[in-house]
Amino acid sequence: MNQKIAGSPLLTVRNLCVSYRSQATTLRAVDGVTLELSPGEFLGVVGESGSGKTQLLLAMLGLSAPGAEVTGSIVFKGQELVGADRKTLSACRGARIAMIFQDPMTALNPYLTIGTQLTEGVRHHQGLSRAAARRKAIELLDAVQIPEPQRRLAQHPHELSGGMRQRIVIAMALICEPDIVLADEPTTALDVTVQAQILTLLRDLRTRTRVAIVLVTHDLGVIAEVADRVAVMYAGRVVEQSSALQLFAHSRHPYTEGLRRSIVPLEGPLPERLPSIGGNPPNLAALPPGCAFAPRCAYAFEPCSSIPPPLTPVSPGHLKACYYEGPLGRLGP
Amino acid sequence: MTEVAANAVAPALEVNDLAVRFAVPGTRQWLHAVDGVSFTVARGETLGVVGESGSGKSTIARALLRLVPATRGTARFRGSDLLALEGRTLRAMREHLQIIFQDPLASLDPRMSVGEIIEEPLREFRPALDRGARREAVRAILGRVGLLPSQLNRYPHEFSGGQAQRIGIARALILQPALLVCDEPISALDVSIKSQIANLLKDLQQAFDLSLLFIAHDLAAVRFSCDRILVLYLGRVMEIASRKALFDTPRHPYTRALLQSVPIPDPLRARARSGVPLGGEIPSPLTPPSGCVFRTRCPFAAPRCAAEIPHLRNVGDSQVACHRAEELG
Lengths: 333, 329
Hints:
A: alpha/beta, B: 8-stranded mixed sheet, 12 strands
């Protein structure tokens, strides 16, 4: 499925910007993001609302909202996707790059049977016959561990539970054997016991099919469960990027550090007060001239308020966008 | 608190055998959302109610606030049965029983200024207060929740989710209620804001000696905020225990599975776990399993579990509704 060329990324994002212009202001939802994705890699993108994480995913599919101005470059297997024509994008979408949305009920059409929705993509993209597509659908339902796959094909989404629906959406994403699956908060709408099931499923599917997955979430715990590498976003920018192991062992950006420390442990000693990041989430319409996190940062000093810090390596494979070089451990301004 | 003192002081709220059922339109079926739930909230205590969607946790809150009718049961609160009050006495009781909601912006009237929103309960319940006294009370509570007097004339849409939740908390506390119901108070907030609001609720609870009913699905939030925790599944209580007992020695198989399902924010430990803690999903409340409602997903289910409903009983420091709690240790 994936041609594995050593060292060559599957997807390269360079200086990507997604802006929305209104009369008075320009909002930069994504502001100069540079990322690479290798074949079979599990990349986690973590950020809060307004961090640009969903906008980044949509841009990868050429699905930015009308009125969005997308600049920079997204190269997928040698092909530029920014500014590509509809035909190129349609050939890519669903077939080579597939998407899993947060809410399975909105992603599925309530009027159509599971079978019709599941086979639509593979019949369109691969020209399979009805019978062949059906066999493929059953195979996929089996792969996402849905019991009685034959019977499901005739059912409608409302007849299934939330967890089952999300499994169907995952099967839909995988049926054309894509190179990349983009997943936008795929477990946020699910209960915690079902979330654990779906995360295990995504991990297993990646191992079995070597599909590359980009998973966007606000939950660092989810990242720790599945991601090989992590990009932390704040106000449209990547502020830290490293392997998941490195990020949880030695995060180097004050924002990442704040997020990590505000997690309540389920065992061991419990703090009397939770360490928390002070202030409020950034307003994209009125960002400070320097680092967007500076107003909430305990380590901010002079240079932080002038120019946004660039993403620079701190060790091999570990990047951060922060001028502060000292030890972390303080919180709040 | 010593044993004697604990017995001498009546709890702030004592719920006994609460049941809520809804008629399913177009059928003769009943949906049993809450089925025989009993618990107490001591004065100054935070009781957590945790469960997944469909467990009935929000229905308990709504029934206590009389937003949905209870089918059965009693709720002792300030010397009377909350569920039996009507008309004027019910309205008067609302002064002592307040709620904060999950979606802070949706729970604030967009046409009212922040000052008007926070002041409104005083106009309703303290008509004797003059304008100056009301303003003073609003300013006092504003400081407690971390908002600025300069924000009084602004409107809800000008605030972020965390700030809007502070407004909702100020409105709920201005009457100094005896019991505050928090329905998922921090789950809709951004990660960096959650801990601010969790800290604030804890501070206010200590300052006002509040009793809190804290409804949540997030176990980590519950561990930080609650003194005791009730675990709900399909409308029934599975376990009630102190925070320490619940997190250190969970007794019910469902409680254990819940704890094991929470993602671990440490890649090494997260990946060392094998298998899925709990398969399947919560069954339809229209056709709940016989006996123990959890048995269809329980790895320890025995024939007895299908035949007999387990009742809450003391096991160690916890109350557990499981036939096999002792042998599972």
